[in-house]
């Protein structure tokens, strides 16, 4: 909402400065978003008169002017190159030190071709005011020298733009803003009274209202015998200042009232209305052309105004082209109505139509103003366009908007945390237009003004389904009891300024705070730290990705496809953060950074809901170093980091299984599924499927993993037994087993580990050999077994016995043969 | 000293002087002090002498033995030192060689800010609560006193998902307020939570991202007033920006779910960007006393319970704190950016170490 300072002063009698007004607007919730002071840039320019202009002795094109620019500059010599600089001309003078916006320089006193020059005579273009540059600007001959040019030209009217929150329809009017400022102690609201314009004939157009739910009350009157020319300069200036284009007097008048009183009006060209009745009714699927040129097809949910020929207006939002006023209009029908805000909002949204009228109606207009506003508009139309007004016609009736609100004075401190004297509270509310109906020492009952559609409004609750009915009812009763009171407290505190409330720190609940994070949340933080400490960079990717990209990583149900994506490639909720990581790796490679490891701990979405996935992706090589060649990333990097996370989160890593059935985005022969038991999948790891990388400029191996943090059971917080620290040295024994090529190493290790429960403390694979020294289709696995004696050192015979058990167990489980 | 002893002395010392390595030195030692060494032989001879002669000769031989032993010892040590020096010289390396570069992993600034918020609010007794990114429109709007036609609802361009099971409309949450609603429905007050998380609005330009992060907070108790709201948020902002005197300003505003509502500004310098300096104000968060209708929608009686709620943009606060110029860079995963603005996983946000 924009307005000018002079417009505000039409309604507000104040001596406050612009800065004070802006500061107060910010305080009371009408946030100043912009401030243009066109006069500020022109403050130094003065009106002046060329007392005498003579030819410059040393330059054909220059003149030496003796200039009177008023007090302090009564006689200044200025060298001027303008052909129109002549004796007696009234001009604009810039003293030395003035910033010339059109030239982007600051002028100095100096000499031009040997003659001193103490300033500059300016063109309008040099002032940044338009393109005119046929020499210097010529002011009217009777202009008094020494005035501020901005004042003289009426350019000193600052434009203030405020953000109006959706509850404050009343502040979409200059008068509403003035009222708020007056209530906050910035001056006094000037009285406003609309003088009645007597009707001299019956209106040839009347109203019928078939849709009173949408339009409780509609008024109108005909004004005939008028001329619709351009509106006067002052009106055009005001509209331009607030960002509106002056069109014609009639249109400008309706725009003026929309801003001045927050009261949208519409004028029909009475001669273009067919028949003698305008009907407020539901749309019926017919099309009409709106004033902005768009064709609108109205539905039964829309409230329209129609004549015999058809729909002429989408009521309260935009009029129709067919009955709009033109330069030739001589007779108008003025509409002034109240519309249901909800229907206006929904209609406007349905049709994607934005207008100043919709903006005001959907936020609520002054319920009591229609009669006065119609009179004021009639008067201005007749003043500016001539003509005579008919009697007022109407349909429906003034709605019962009257409401009351009660304030218990103690509640101001109870909710607001600050004591406000009862008198101060009541005075502030009265200044806003509330009227005291009853008052005693503890409370006051007030009538709510007709323009405040945000206070003591009917309660609309939407309570949680499944609430216990008694609890729900008690809560509702409670809300009813305090709802309007909260509205009033907000007004009192707002006008007073929230800065006047002394801050109080929250009372301490416990001397030492309890943990802020749940164990589940700690897990995500731990996973992050583990991965970052292992050299991976954390990333954050959008939760939505391109559907085609997502489909390569998992299911992409339609239920997880956005109905209104902001871009075609951000339309599907991602099944896994891996989708984003692959794009990120690709982008970094394209920028020349192909060797990297990235991770994200973030949501993946599936038909079953949302899960937290710790995901990592690696690409490229280790760096080349003296004595070391660059190694490509391998799935073992991914597996190691995945297990490091699992270990840090307390998963029983020794008891987990790895199976070779990872989903399709992994290389089928180089990936695994990490399981805890047959059903619980903790994650996947491996090399990414080559098909996934094809055509992405990634000619290097890419590996990664996904861990489902929610699938990891919370470790039991059991008190652990003291460790058994044996004083006897462990015994290390190496074995080489030849097994069939498809036997999993894990099976061999498990079998070895299970061969003896008390002595074996470690089983480690140190070698895998395939080649001519073992039979075709077989491999040799070298494993190291650690035996930890507990009570005494082991004898050779005991070691032999355990070794035999291990060989037997591995042979039995895996068909292994001890290599000779 | 008799001549033979002097000869032995001279020869031994000469031999020691030319002994170049451990082997030659050992030959001198054995040849002198060994079982069949020359000095050993002289000592053996003493036994066959008369007591007087032995006394005289013995003293001389013993002196010589002490002298030569010492000389052999010293020479031995010298040779060991030479050997060690030679080895050290041979083992010399170019210590300016760089070590293998370690891939230093980093925590993303968004995660870092969330950790800091959890630490600061945690110290004030708040708990971190979470909820789903896909919400029903009831949790995201209706419960928050924002009915379908409400202008506030059109202001937040909402992403919609297909409705399921003929149920309520599903949206990507435009705020994490749904978490507040869930908390009020599942827990009895007193409540102190913050809800950091992903939020979504259909807005994409230099200063808006269709996905961003918010941290909302909720305090519900008996006797919580606007003064507590001001105290709590002032305490937070001063701790977060590390400026105990940070100017904080509260301006009246409007949100459907709070009343009174306010926006919160901090002091900064528009010119230098310095937080806490200058005469300008910068809006950093929105807040207000929880609207009685919101309490009632969640089954709480506003006559008994009241409190406040607030919400702030995590990226915005992160950008201010660290002077990050571009919002979009948060999601681009450019390793150079991540390295620059990331933090070490070994310095988590701990209040006792300082943020």
**SS content category of chain A:** alpha+beta
- Structurally, the number of domains of chain B stands at 2
CATH-scheme architecture of the largest domain in chain A: 2-Layer Sandwich
Oligomer: heterodimer
Please tell me the total number of domains of chain A. Answer: 6
- Counted by DSSP, the helix tally of chain A is 19
Radius of gyration of chain B: 43 Å
Low-confidence parts of chain A: none
Write the layout of secondary structure elements.
The complex is a heterodimer of chains A (820) and B (355).
Chain A: E1 2-4, H1 5-11, E2 12-13, H2 18-27, E3 31-36, E4 46-55, E5 63-68, E6 76-80, E7 90-94, E8 99-100, E9 105-106, E10 110-112, E11 115-117, E12 120-121, H3 149-152, E13 159-163, H4 174-183, E14 188-189, E15 206-209, E16 217-224, H5 233-241, H6 249-260, E17 266-269, E18 277-282, E19 287-289, E20 295-297, E21 303-307, E22 310-314, E23 318-319, E24 331-338, H7 341-351, H8 356-363, H9 370-385, E25 388-389, E26 393-396, E27 404-408, H10 410-416, H11 422-431, E28 435-439, E29 443-447, H12 469-496, H13 519-533, E30 537-538, E31 544-545, H14 547-551, E32 572-573, H15 578-590, E33 596-606, E34 609-619, H16 635-648, E35 657-659, E36 666-676, E37 680-688, H17 690-693, E38 702-708, E39 731-740, H18 745-754, E40 760-769, E41 778-787, H19 796-814, E42 817-818
Parallel strand pairs in A: 15-18, 30-33
Antiparallel strand pairs in A: 1-13, 2-14, 3-13, 4-5, 4-7, 5-6, 7-12, 8-9, 10-11, 16-24, 16-25, 16-26, 17-24, 18-21, 19-20, 21-22, 22-23, 27-29, 28-29, 31-32, 33-34, 34-38, 35-36, 36-37, 37-38, 39-41, 39-42, 40-41
Helix pairs in contact in A: 1-4, 4-11, 5-6, 6-9, 7-8, 10-12, 13-16, 18-19
Chain B: H1 3-18, H2 22-33, H3 38-46, H4 51-90, H5 109-123, E1 127-128, E2 134-136, H6 137-140, H7 151-155, E3 160-161, E4 170-172, H8 177-186, E5 191-200, E6 211-221, H9 226-240, E7 248-255, E8 258-268, E9 280-290, H10 292-297, E10 306-313, H11 314-322, H12 335-341
Parallel strand pairs in B: 1-5
Antiparallel strand pairs in B: 2-4, 3-4, 5-6, 6-10, 7-8, 8-9, 9-10
């Amino acid at each position: 909402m924009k307005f000018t300072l002079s417009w505000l002063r039409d309604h507000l009698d104040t001596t406050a400065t612009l800065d004070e007004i802006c500061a107060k607007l910010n305080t009371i919730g009408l946030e100043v978003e912009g401030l243009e002071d066109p006069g500020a840039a022109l403050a130094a320019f003065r009106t002046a008169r060329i007392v005498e202009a003579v030819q410059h002795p040393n330059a054909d094109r220059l003149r030496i002017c003796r200039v009177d620019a008023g007090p302090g500059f009564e006689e200044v010599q200025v060298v001027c190159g303008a052909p129109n600089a002549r004796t007696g001309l009234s001009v604009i003078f810039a003293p030395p030190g003035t910033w010339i916006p059109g030239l982007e320089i600051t002028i100095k006193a100096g000499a031009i071709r040997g003659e001193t020059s103490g300033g500059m005579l300016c063109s309008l273009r040099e002032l940044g005011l338009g393109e005119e540059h046929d020499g210097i600007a010529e002011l009217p001959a009777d202009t008094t020298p020494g005035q501020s040019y901005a004042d003289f030209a009426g350019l000193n009217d600052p434009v203030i733009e405020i953000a109006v929150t959706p509850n404050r329809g009343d502040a979409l009017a200059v008068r509403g803003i003035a009222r708020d400022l007056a209530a906050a102690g910035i001056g006094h609201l000037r009285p406003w009274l609309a003088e009645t314009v007597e009707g001299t004939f019956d209106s040839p157009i009347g109203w019928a209202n078939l849709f009173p739910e949408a339009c409780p009350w509609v008024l109108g009157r005909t004004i005939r015998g008028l001329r619709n020319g351009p509106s006067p300069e002052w009106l055009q200036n005001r509209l331009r200042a607030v960002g509106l284009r002056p069109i014609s007097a009639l249109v400008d008048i309706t725009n003026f009232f929309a801003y001045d009183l927050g009261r949208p009006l519409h004028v029909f060209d009475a001669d273009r209305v067919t028949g003698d009745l305008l009907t407020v009714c539901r749309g019926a699927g017919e099309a009409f052309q709106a004033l902005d040129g768009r064709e609108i097809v109205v539905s039964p949910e829309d409230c329209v105004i129609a004549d015999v020929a058809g729909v002429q207006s989408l009521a309260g939002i935009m009029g129709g082209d067919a009955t709009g006023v033109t330069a030739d209009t001589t007779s108008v029908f003025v509409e002034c109505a109240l519309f249901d805000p909800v229907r206006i909002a929904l209609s406007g949204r349905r049709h994607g139509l934005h207008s100043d009228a919709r903006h005001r109606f959907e936020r609520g207009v002054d319920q009591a103003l229609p009669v006065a506003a119609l009179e004021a508009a009639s008067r201005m139309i007749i003043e500016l366009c001539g003509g005579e007004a008919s009697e007022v016609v109407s349909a429906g009736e003034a709605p019962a908007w009257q409401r009351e609100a009660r304030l218990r004075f103690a509640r101001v401190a109870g909710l607001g945390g600050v004591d406000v004297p009862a008198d101060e509270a009541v005075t502030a509310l009265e200044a806003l237009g509330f009227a005291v109906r009853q008052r005693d020492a503890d409370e006051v009952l007030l009538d709510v003004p007709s323009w405040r559609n945000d206070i003591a409004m009917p309660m609309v609750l939407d309570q949680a389904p499944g609430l216990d009915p008694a609890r729900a009812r008690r809560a509702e009763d409670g809300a009813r009891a305090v709802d309007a009171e909260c509205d009033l407290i907000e007004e009192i505190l707002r006008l007073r300024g929230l800065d006047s409330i002394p801050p109080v720190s929250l009372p301490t609940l416990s001397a030492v705070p309890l943990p802020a994070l749940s164990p589940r949340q700690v897990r995500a933080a731990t996973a992050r730290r583990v991965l970052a400490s292992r050299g991976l960079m954390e990333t954050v990717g959008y939760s939505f990705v391109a559907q085609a990209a997502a489909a390569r990583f998992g299911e992409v149900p339609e239920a997880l496809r956005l109905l209104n994506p902001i871009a075609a490639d951000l339309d599907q909720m991602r099944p896994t953060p891996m989708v984003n990581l692959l794009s990120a790796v690709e982008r970094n490679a394209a920028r020349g950074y192909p060797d990297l490891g990235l991770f994200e701990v973030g949501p993946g979405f599936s038909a079953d809901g949302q899960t937290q996935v710790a995901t990592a992706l690696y690409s490229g090589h280790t760096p080349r170093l003296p004595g070391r060649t660059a190694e490509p990333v391998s799935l073992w990097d991914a597996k190691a980091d995945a297990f490091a996370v699992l270990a840090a989160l307390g998963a029983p890593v020794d008891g987990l299984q790895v199976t070779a059935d990872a989903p399709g985005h992994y290389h089928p022969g180089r990936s695994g599924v990490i399981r805890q038991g047959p059903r619980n999948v903790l994650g996947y790891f491996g090399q990414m499927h080559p098909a996934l990388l094809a055509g992405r400029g990634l000619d290097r191996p890419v590996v990664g993993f996904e861990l489902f943090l929610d699938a990891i059971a919370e470790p039991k917080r059991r008190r652990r037994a003291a460790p058994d620290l044996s004083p006897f040295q462990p015994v290390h024994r190496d074995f080489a087993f030849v097994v069939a090529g498809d036997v999993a190493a894990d099976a061999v290790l498990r079998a070895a580990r299970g061969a003896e429960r008390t002595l074996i403390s470690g089983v480690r694979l140190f070698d895998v050999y395939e080649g001519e020294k073992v039979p075709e289709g077989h491999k040799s696995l070298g494993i190291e077994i650690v035996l930890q004696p507990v009570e005494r050192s082991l004898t050779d015979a005991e070691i032999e016995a355990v070794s035999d058990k291990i060989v037997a167990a591995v042979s039995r489980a895996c068909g292994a043969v001890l290599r000779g | 000293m008799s001549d033979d002893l002097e000869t032995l002395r001279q020869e031994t010392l000469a031999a020691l002087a030319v002994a170049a390595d451990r082997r030659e030195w050992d030959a001198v030692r054995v040849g002198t002090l060994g079982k069949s060494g020359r000095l050993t032989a002289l000592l053996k001879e003493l036994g066959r002498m008369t007591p007087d002669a032995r006394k005289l000769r013995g003293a001389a031989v013993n002196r010589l033995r002490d002298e030569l032993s010492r000389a052999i010892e010293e020479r031995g040590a010298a040779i060991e030192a030479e050997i060690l020096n030679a080895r050290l010289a041979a083992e010399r390396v170019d210590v300016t060689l760089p070590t293998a570069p370690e891939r230093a992993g980093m925590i993303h600034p968004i995660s870092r800010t969330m950790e800091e918020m959890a630490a600061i609010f945690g110290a004030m007794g708040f708990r971190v609560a979470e909820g789903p990114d896909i919400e029903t429109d009831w949790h995201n709007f209706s419960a928050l006193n924002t009915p379908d036609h409400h202008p506030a609802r059109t202001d937040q361009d909402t992403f919609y998902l297909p409705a399921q099971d003929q149920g309520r409309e599903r949206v990507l949450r435009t705020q994490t307020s749904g978490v507040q609603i869930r908390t009020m429905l599942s827990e009895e007050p007193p409540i102190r939570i913050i809800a950091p998380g992903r939020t979504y609005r259909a807005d994409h330009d230099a200063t808006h991202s269709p996905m961003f992060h918010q941290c909302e907070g909720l305090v519900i108790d008996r006797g919580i007033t606007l003064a507590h709201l001001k105290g709590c948020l002032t305490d937070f902002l001063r701790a977060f920006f590390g400026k105990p005197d940070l100017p904080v300003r509260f301006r009246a505003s409007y949100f459907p779910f709070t009343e009174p509502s306010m926006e919160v500004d901090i002091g900064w310098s528009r010119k230098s960007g310095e937080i806490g300096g200058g005469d300008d104000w910068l809006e950093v968060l929105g807040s207000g006393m929880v609207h009685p209708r919101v309490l009632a929608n969640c089954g709480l009686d506003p006559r008994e319970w009241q409190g406040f709620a607030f919400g702030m943009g995590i990226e915005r606060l992160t950008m201010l704190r660290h002077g990050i110029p571009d919002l979009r860079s948060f999601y681009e995963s450019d390793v150079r950016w991540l390295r620059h603005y990331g933090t070490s996983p070994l310095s988590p946000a701990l209040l006792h170490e300082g943020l």
